[in-house]
Write a structure and sequence with these properties.
The chain is globular. The chain contains four helices and no strands. The two termini are 24 Å apart. It is mainly alpha-helical.
């Protein structure tokens, strides 16, 4: 499941419907901005769709 989520994040980040997380992670020419943008997108996704704070404490 996590691989599919990462694929979708990469696709949204790059604008490419065929982008996949594993090949993207192995690219040698990623920039710091590329990496931070992806991590920020992942954090936004987690805050939106992840478990709520109340559920985590239960």
């Amino acid at each position: 499941m996590a691989g599919h989520v990462l694929d979708r994040l990469i696709q949204a980040h790059t604008g490419s419907a065929t982008a996949r997380a594993t090949p993207w992670s192995e690219r040698q020419h990623r920039t710091h901005a590329d990496i931070t943008a992806l991590l920020s997108a992942g954090a936004r996704f987690a805050r939106t769709y992840g478990p709520s704070q109340g559920a985590a404490a239960a």
